[in-house]
Amino acid sequence: MRKPLISGSRKGLRMVALPLAAAAVLLAGCGSGGAGKSEAAQAKPGSDGNEAKDTPARVSVDPIDGTQGVAPGKPITVTADSGTLASVRVVDAQNRAIEGTVGADGRTWTSTTRTIPGAAYTVTATTRGKKGAETSVTSKFGTLKADTVNKVTLRPANGGTFGVGQPVSIMFDHAVKDKAEVERNLKVTTAPNVEGSWGWTKDQSGKDRVDWRPREFWPSGTRVTLNANLAGVAGGPGAYFTRDYESTFTVGTNRVVEVDVPKKRLTVIEDGTAVKTIKMSAGSNEFPTRGGTHVILNKNATETLDSTTVGLGDSYNLPDVPWVVHFTSSGTFFHSAAWNTANIGVANTSHGCVGMTVPDAEWFYNRVQVGDPVVVKGSNNTEATEPGNGFGNWQLTYDQWKAKSALAS
User: Could you tell me where the beta strands, DSSP code E, fall in 203-262?
Assistant: First the structure.
């Protein structure tokens, strides 16, 4: 194997950070006789020149060898001026590889995954000449360190079975300035195929969030996979993601909870059939239960209900309430209400929650699952639940939801 020489001087090169100037270093493998020898002079003694050794390929690597401060995610290209690229390997200091593909001419390799911030990369390329001789070249560069590393929280977490109203949700630790760039690198795959759209919102916590919801409730049995290919993506100036994320879940029973406020009854419906109707007491006229479609967020076998946590001052503090099911982040729950037995099925007297007897609340708790839709009908509460308040995505029509995509035309 011939030892390559680096052709071209780097003297005077100006190092830049973002964006990196278009530049490439030419790398060549050559014989000990030096440049300028004729092919005949390099041929085997006594030959007519037709058996000359392969002319070494000149290889350009972008980013240029030795450059620091390269923008994370900037594509890497390796190009040979002759022969073909036999192999290209790009790894960081932890031996994590950057993937890439070779073009149809066999001479150009382009990365298909992104570099991450603050990493050192080594590019090793091997070319093969027309007569089979191989030459290897090496180039190194480093990427810019991130001012801010953005991380995400996925819901649902990887694995598990969830209700037909459960969206795919990504919440970001830091504000996302370039929402379109982030969204372009998110993909939801479903089996069977289900139509849906991303939409951006503010979580109840104040953080940026992007959710993918289907046009209608999921078909039962759907398998949903999220691929968030975010490593090296800039969410804003100096703010980068350093890894990819993946999550898969399965859609369970087609179950919908219907809450009829005037009738003081809730009905659990599975596959279009009512399996149980339960007496309940919803919000009073002063504190009406939120109307519209929500999604069950989580369940707690016991929980302290404290009015100070939901903006209602010192109205109540109820420790160790059993069978609590949340359906908004702002504090709207299903729960047992032993202290309010006289009003269950008779009058709506709560601060917005839906109270039941202890036995009914236990049955409800054990029957429903996270992701089940909750449809509240007949409420006199005219306040629309924001999409980021729990999973209020279903408060909007599908066209309204699609308009919240950063890529909406």
Answer: 208-214, 223-228, 234-236, 239-240, 245-251, 255-260
Of the CA atoms within 13 Å of residue 114, those in its CB half-sphere come to: 21
Q: How many CB atoms lie within 10 A of CB 84?
A: 15
* Strand locations in 221-370 (E): 223-228, 234-236, 239-240, 245-251, 255-260, 265-270, 273-279, 292-295, 298-306, 317-326, 333-336, 354-356
Sequence-ordered list of residues with C-beta below 8 angstroms from that of 168, at least 6 positions apart, any chain = 155, 156, 188, 211, 212, 213, 224, 226, 247
Q: Tens digit of pLDDT for each residue in 59-84?
A: 999 999 999 999 999 999 999 999 99
How many Cβ atoms sit within 10 Å of the Cβ of residue 162? 21
Q: Note whether 109 and 85 are within 8 A (CB).
A: yes
SS3 (DSSP) at 54: coil
d(CA 97, CA 93): 10
Side chain identity at residue 204, one-letter code = Q
For the chain, give me the number of helices (H) and strands (E)? Answer: 4, 30
Name residues whose C-beta falls within 8 Å of residue 363's C-beta, 6 or more positions apart in sequence: 276, 278
Q: Please choose, from the candidates 358, 161, 169, the residue with its C-alpha nearest in 3D space to the C-alpha of residue 249.
A: 161
pLDDT digits (tens, 9 = 90+) for 364-402: 999 999 999 999 999 999 888 999 999 999 999 999 999
Nearest to 117 by CA among 17, 231, 197: 231
